[in-house]
Structure formats: structure tokens, C-alpha cells
Amino acid sequence: MDIAPLIPFAASAVDAVTKRGAAAVVAAAVVIALSGLGDPLLDLLNFVFLLTALYSLWYVDDVERRGWYWAWLDAFYGSMLLFLTSSNWLWILAGWGGLDAASWALILTYRDDEELGLVGDGARGKFLQWLWRPSASALRAIATVELGTVALAVGLAAAAAAYGPNIGLWRDLPPAIAALILIAAFVKSAQIPFTDWLMTAMSAPTPVSALLHSATMVAAGPILLVRLHGPLAHYWPYALAVGLATAVYGGLTALWQREPKVLLAASTASYLGLATAFSLTDPAGATALLIAHGFAKAALFMAVGESIHRHGTRLPGSHGAVAKAAMALSLATLLGLTPAGAVAKSLLPDWELPFSFLTAGYVGRLLLGTSTERAWSPLSAVALASAALAFAAPATAPSPLWLLALAGLALYKAPPLKPMERRLYLPELFAAVGGGLLAAARAVGSLDSRIDRALLSAGSLWRALAGAAAVADKAVDDALHLKLVGAVRRASAKLSEIGVEVYLYAAGAAALVAFVAFILI
């Protein structure tokens, strides 16, 4: 295994104690020096993390749980490095799972009573309230993405048993294994129907969103498909259908979101939908799209975050001039008008133009739908630096065709559309399904209790025999139907309130050491 992924985990231990973030900056610089340049996806990860760490030095200076934040941010980086640089399926799975754990923890950075950690307008729906606190957002995220992780673990293990541990040597995968890996990629990259957890993950601080949406976590889904495009080549229609459906849904949803971070989250699902759609038929094009989107999306989140940080609200009505310059440059990249953007667009079919039209619309809401201030800060300067990285790509002349997408800027004045603002009511649907399942579980438990009581009211001999079984049965019922769900909810809420970062990190580090020792032995 490459030594580079271990460096961020070492930095995590330092930052957990010092709470300064200096180790994160040093770790990124060291990894860049060791890795060199030339691998586009690795370059994206390294430079976006370096900028995110620098940005966080100012952004989280007044955050109460800084040790927690920095420790898990470093672990986030290390997990993505492990996933990206490994060919052994076990290390890939370890990195994938590490991303799950780190994203869950980072969503819990703010406490439940902090306004910046909320998502939603608080309105009461038929089946839920449109307001998610960090504990609820974290639970929602981990409950969703772990479905994909379990599917990936089974799929990779089965493929490794057939073809060996190195994924680069795998051949055509059978349908059952392919289905598990595809589902894992769809869940991770928030593809339909697994999209909405990404919206409520905006409970995390903005730098986390900048990193998660550009170079880690959700990007791992299409990257996995790109790396396995050979063994999965026959299944391209599924990736194409799910990816395009998500691209349409995410782009339209973004147009009608009031919260800037939720708008950008929906747009991430849209762009990753395009990358997913092309991942098995045009891996080079999908990779180029991920690169262009990564630098632009990091800059957009940082630009929005500067206003959120300065105004102390998640609904800023204005942005500084430098932040808007970063937004405009990011839009140019997403439309194919900068070198990185032009490379991506040159590899994509012309019928992708309507998606760029939507891009101009929702970024236009940030650019043209808000007022402009003269204020600036180091945060907006870092955002502009991220957007400028699009010029580090080989010089490529943009196609005049993509200039047509600028007409989409007119969409920023689109009138309110409640179904799209409510994300087609998919959260309501899932809440209703969840409530139905809970009601069914309670009904089964109630029926089982009636049976227990009937048995206990039988004759003395039968009652003696049935008593022990009924007590054991009731204990299992209570644990599965009520206590398990309640315990997970309480754990998420508790961790959002107390500073246990050092202790939790120590347990995680011990587990990692034990895992590494087991693999090496």
C-alpha cells in the first residue's frame, strides 16, 4: 500500500489535540510532494483538500468543536486517498467505509441548536417537518449510504473470490455482482432514488460541503464505475438511465431551492448524474467532467460560504464582489469556457447542451438573484483560487456551441414552483414509507404480545413452559422494534452535543491499527 494515505490519518491525531488545522495543511503539502502531478483525479483531491484546509483556518475559527472537525476532515482526506490509490479490493472498501464514517461525523460538527446546522424552512408537511437538525441529517445520511457500502462489500468480495484481490485484473462480472456494485455507486453519488440524503447533509459546515461535493465521498461513486468500466461494460444502459434521470431531476430541483447550499447540493447530484451516465461508455469524458465540476463546485461552495460566515445566516441575500467573481469563473468552467471545462465538453456529446442551460439558470440565481457587496475576505480569495485552477488544464479552445448555454441565465427569474421546491415531495414519500414500516412493526409487536398473553393464560404446565419463551420473545421484540432505532437516534443526538472527539478518535485509530496489522499478518 502507498504511504500517502497514512499521512492524513497521522495529521488527524495531531489536529484532534491541537484543534488548529496546521497538520491538515502540512499533510496536503506532503502528499502533493510525494505524489507529484499527472494523475488528474489525485491532483483534484490533493489541491481541493489543500484549499479546503486553508479556507477552514478562517471558517471554523469560531466553531466550538474544532478538534472534532479537524480530526474527521483529515480522516476524510485519508479515506479518499486510500480509495483512489489502491487496487486491492479490501483497501478500496476500507477507504469507501472511511468516507461514510467521516461524512457522518462531519455532519455532526454543529450542535442541534445552532442555526447554521439546520436545513429546511421549518414548514409542516403532511408526513414530516421540513427542518433537519445535524443529528437527524447525520442519521439520514449514514442510514442511506450504508446500504451502498453493504452492497459494495458483498459485490467486491464475490468478485475477488472469482478473479483475485486486484480489481485491475477483473474480467466481465456476472449480473448479481454487477448489480451490487452499481447500487453501491448510485447510493454513494446520490443518484435517484437515493438523492435526498445529500440535500440534508448540508447541516455540515460549508468547507465540508466544498470537499464532499467536489473531490471526496459522492465523487467516489462514478470514480468506482470508471475504474471498473471494463468488467462492467455490458451494464452501461443502467448507468446511463439512472445517471440521466438524476441529471434532469437534480438540475430542475436546483432551480427552485431557496437555500444556496441546498441549491448547490442538487446541482451536484445533477452533474454526478452526467458523470455516472458516461462512466461505462466514455470513462475519459466522465473523468474530465469530474475534474471540471470538482474545481468549480469547490469554488461555488466556498463563495457561498463566505457570505454565510460573514452574515451568520444560511440564507444570505448578498455576496461580495470577489465571491461573485469566483462564481462567474466557476460557471464558465461548468459551461466549457475555461480550459478544464473545454476539455470536458469536447469529450461529451452535443445533446448535453440542455443540462448546461440548467446550470446557467441555477448559478444565475446566485449571481444575478442576489445583491453585490464590496466586502471580501480570505475566504472569497480561496474560492477564487479554486475556480482559477480550471486554467491549469491543457489549453483547449472552447466550442462556440456552449456559449448558447448562457441564455439559461434568464432562468434565475423562474417563478416559484412548489413541487420542485419540495423536491417532488420525495422526502414526504420516504417519510410516509418509513412511518408505514414503523406502524407495521408496532402492529406485529402488538399481535405478538397478544399471543404471549394468551399463552400465559393457559394451564399451569403450559404456562410454565411458555413463560420463558414469552419473556425471551418480548426482549427480542423490544430490542428490534423500539430500542435499536431509539438508541441510534440518541447516539447521534448525544454526539452532536458533547465533545468526545479525542476519545472517539483514539478508538478509531486503535481499530485502524488492528485492521492494518491483521492485513499485514
From TrEMBL:
Domain of life from the UniProt record: Archaea
Coiled-coil ranges from the UniProt annotation: none
GO cellular component: membrane
Location relative to the cell: Membrane
One Pfam family named in its UniProt record: Proton_antipo_M
GO molecular function, one term: NADH dehydrogenase activity
Keyword Kinase listed: no
Bilayer-spanning residue ranges: 21-38, 44-60, 67-84, 141-164, 176-198, 210-229, 235-255, 325-348, 381-412, 424-445, 502-520
Any one Gene Ontology BP term: electron transport coupled proton transport
InterPro entries: ND/Mrp_TM, NU5C-like
UniProt KW Lyase keyword: no
Keywords attached to this entry: Membrane, Transmembrane, Transmembrane helix
Principal location: membrane
Membrane topology summary: Multi-pass membrane protein
PANTHER family per record: NADH-UBIQUINONE OXIDOREDUCTASE CHAIN 5 (PTHR42829:SF2)
Protein name: NADH-quinone oxidoreductase subunit L
Natural source organism: Thermoproteus uzoniensis (strain 768-20)
